[in-house]
Amino acid sequence: MKKTIFFILFTCLQISILAQTPSVQRINPSNWWVGMKNPKLQLLVYGKNIAGSEVKINYQGVTLEKVNQVENPNYLFLDLNIASNTQAGQMFIELSKTIKVQKGKKSIVDQMVKITYPFQLKVRDQKPQEINSKDFIYLILPDRFSNGDPNNDKFADMADLASDRKNPFLRHGGDLLGVQNHLDYIKELGATTIWLNPVVENNQPQTNEGGAMRSAYHGYGFTDHYNVDKRLGGNEAYKKLIEAAHAKGLKIIQDAVYNHVGINHWILKDLPMKNWLNQWDTYTNTSYRDEPVVDILHGSAADFKVQQNGWFVAFLPDLNHKNEFVANFLIQHALWTVENFGIDGWRIDTYQYNDLNFMNRCNAALVEEYPKMFITGENSVQSAYSQAYFAKNNLNVPFKSTLPSANDFVLFNAINDALNQGFDWGKGFNRLYSTLAMDALYEDANLNMTFLDNHDMDRFYSVIGEDFNKYKLGVGFLLTTRGVPHLYYGTENLTKNFKNPSDAEVRKDFEGGWADDKVNKFLSSGRTEKENEAFDFVKKLANYRKTSEAITEGKLTQFLPQDGIYVYFRYTNNQSVMVIMSQNKEDKNLDTQRFVERISGFTSAKNIMTDSSVGDLKSLKIPAMSITILELQK
């Protein structure tokens, strides 16, 4: 965010300048707060010809401890200490530098130039709400959800001028006001929390991917950390959305990207130092493999380096987290975001490709200021061991991650396998059982973020062959098993598609989000009968889940799947819920004697989805390809 320089003072105006006049164009963070638990703050100062400047800060409680000079003379990094009793207010950062100027035709003299830049210290007033297994998260890709303000669809001064809904690869105009306009829909569905794909400015040019020019509508190529993209509405629209969401009892998770930035990031146009990025003699891509990191016995150092320091793609330059200035820049931006906007949690993109010691440091900084902060990390891995390695775990390994929550790709894969495989040894519902049986690897598997699909995956309804019974089994399992469930926008309305030929196929516009849409699926009248049945299924179970301490807080006991039926219980001292999943092609009678350890003392039950009573728990008739959810009663 650019600020106006407060004043430049020259003692003589009739002189010719022989050296470039110093100037300050921006300071990041753009402001800060008093009362932070960590008194340290490092300011990135960017301008022209500011190296060698004498820096002064005259503000009670603020000490300038060090002025860091770096390779590029256009940068200074200022180390400040802000005492605990410092008062909020506006302080001034003064840079003084002597330059050579010509006075008249022959005389060259030294001239002192002073630049004073205002910097605001504010009072902390954000208290993030806790996100945990009681929550149900709704994932939204803002550009594809709803267009609340067509006036911000495109800007002439941005690198990508296009906005065209007919082109799946370009921006479509969805924005934060569009999300705000549909908060009631999200709340009606039963969600408690909204996760937005990145909102930070992505002033990226279109890139050629697979032979097609594509916009960075997904948001994963930041170009200015301190500005929300103005095509989404900018900083003020984001604040208004969060305030409106909080007023309706909804929480907000922000998508963080620490591993890389967009090729058009303002810092990359004038790097502070060469090692701001991970540099290679020739372009080196990451291997996308987790094994070189988690293989502590047999892995090679060369493979580890490529996985960690290789670039994600050529147009997303890889940040060097071992550079202390880079690390401070990213950590302080995370803290600034919580205080400035009032978000409640973080989802960390491409977690495993970040320097893991840096990630521990970043997690610690957030938790120090906000002890209950929800932080979940994306690691698209295949094994429970790898997934646990990158999160808080019970493994006996040298490196111990501090990530509280894993995006549960292992369970995601198991769900898809379970629903698409026939029941057999190690297949079908046995995949769910076996995956959950490995939960002891995690410090707290109940914090794992669980899902059926997301913005990078084939749509769930297509993966299961558009089988509605499988749909209810998947959604029912998601909302009753352990973890923090999230649903990708549109899944509640049976949105379908595969990623072929690109991710754009699974990022379709939400019908009804644009004024000229012929169908409005935000309304029951705009949905088909089957879509309403799906929406109502999610809505009923999600809203029941809100009130069920057994599902949101309780223990999980599962029984070996037998005869095509998988049974598990969620329970506390006050409530017990029995879940019965069948993948049989015909109805079955279930003898419940095997479950006596969990149903002893209960004589009846209420079917949560049908509101009907079950009077005899000794034998239950289980419909084919179904999920039955019973609240046990005494």
**What is the rounded Rg?**
28 Å
Strand order of the largest sheet: 20-19-18-17-12-11-22-21
Global morphology:
elongated
Our measurement of the CA-to-CA distance between the termini, rounded to an integer number of angstroms, reads 62 Å
CATH architecture of the largest domain: Alpha-Beta Barrel
Number of helices: 15
Estimate nothing, just give the exact number of structural domains.
Answer: 3
Percent of residues in helices comes to 10-25%
CATH class division of the largest domain = Alpha Beta
Mean pLDDT: 95
Major sheet summary line: 8 strands, parallel
The overall strand count is: 30
Output the CATH homologous superfamily of the largest domain.
Glycosidases
Structural class: alpha/beta
Predict the CATH topology of the largest domain: TIM Barrel
The share of residues in extended strands comes to 25-35%
List low-pLDDT spans.
1-18
